[in-house]
């Protein structure tokens, strides 16, 4: 009997719940695998997919979003060994799973912590409620490949935003494999879109895109590029999360800043009628 | 394309008789059923092939501006109000308020009752004012009422009338009735241009589309238009191809040029450019002008504007920065 030939995986992009190749047809060799090299047009397509998903995802109940994030943790748990085989340390996979659970819990609690009744001098009920900002572009941190990625995606989507993520160029396999987890977790297509390839190609397009509402520059290590991206983002007043410091501890308690930066506050003045 | 060459030959030999066809039902039927059949697979394949052309940079910029000039900015809703159509007319004049170099659209297309409000805004601007008439969209009303509908729209200021053919009569083979209605409507139009809506989605076959196109042109239509936009199947590339071939052959046979207007379902710049490629490849540059080719559309304009903005600024535009209607 002849020896079996293993089926090698093609690592593709994740856009609108599907796994397309780059429209440019390009790929690059990294981590001993061929990975799609996303172009600016892939970034454009991803924004279209993310925008289309906003209505359904932001309109879902917070409880439902929390359930789905928890489901992601379940699916990730089941694929633990696969990530370890890709070279992700076991404790990092565990931390990533726990992070999904941690953010899942926040889904229906954040508006109580971050919103609420305001005391005003007048016959009004004055209430502030946080709402998702819309489409968020994210430059994922270079390291740690999985925990860093989860730590930027989860806080953005738990509140109802949809994201276009530029994955770490040097370690994209964990990102593409995470996309496979997301695709099997009841997460509606388009809520998370993952682009692999050069940050310098996709992120400036996203930063300048007028249909993107916020940008998270966490993974942009080059200070000059980060400044340029902030200038681009200012054109339509995107909310900006600044790059993380090089010594940022991804294992530490993340706090709620990542979630709250990507929210809009809606305040309602309701007459008391007395 | 062989069938088409055959057809041109037939029609050229029949050139002298064409004006006489309307006189009898039999002559019309003989002529229309004598038109060669459309090669369905061939037409669809040809349309699909023409849709694969890559139009980039300066050619794309030209195509977008041309497409904007060809748009019949349309609102045909029961919920149309004077305020809404005025806003639409204002948009027709200056589609992109941020860029004065953006051309105005070809026309505004509204229901007859909304014509006076639009006419106020468009007067003297060069943007045409089209109105659907003849009991749009079904065409199921007595002839006198349809003609009164047309006259009212023209009197109110419409200079283009979009009529619907009587599909019931056409499909049951009463070609003379359809012909006479178009002739009567054309007369009621006076100086206004007449666009004849074939409602291809209800004609079922390409052969019928070809026959209806010829019938409308023989009866004096200035434009043939695919659809009302009120039935599930609207403009498609193959249907438009068949109609373009018909206007090309009609000009070869009679010397009179007739325009084409696909309407309904054309929503993106990419779609619009596919149509322009097809016009150029099928009938040539003579038709690449708003006088001879129009897009019946509403949401298409915003996509054209977003693509135009992308080309001028280098930054992808978002729908938040363009009006909803």
Report on this model:
The complex is a heterodimer of chains A (274) and B (325). Chain A has 274 residues and is an alpha/beta fold. Helices cover 42% and strands 18% of the residues of chain A. With 325 residues, chain B is of the alpha/beta class. In chain B, 50% of the residues lie in helices and 10% in strands. Chain B is built from 13 helices and 8 strands. In chain B, strands 7-6-5-4-3-2-1-8 form an 8-stranded parallel β-sheet. In chain B, helix 10 links the parallel strand 5 and strand 6. Chains A and B meet through loops of A and loops of B.
Structural class of chain B: alpha/beta
Q: Which architecture name of chain A does CATH use? A: 3-Layer(aba) Sandwich
CA radius of gyration of chain B: 19 Å
Q: How confident is the prediction overall: mean pLDDT of chain B?
A: 92
Q: Which CATH architecture of chain B?
A: Alpha-Beta Barrel
Q: What is the beta-strand fraction of chain A? A: 15-25%
**Could you name the CATH class of chain A?**
Alpha Beta
Overall 3D form of chain B = globular
What's the CATH topology label of chain A? Aldehyde Dehydrogenase, Chain A, domain 1
Question: Which CATH C-level class of chain B is it?
Answer: Alpha Beta
List keywords for this structure.
heterodimer; A: 274 residues; alpha/beta; Aldehyde Dehydrogenase, Chain A, domain 1; 5-stranded parallel sheet; 3-stranded antiparallel sheet; 10 helices; B: 325 residues; TIM Barrel; 8-stranded parallel sheet; 13 helices; 50% helix; globular; disordered N terminus
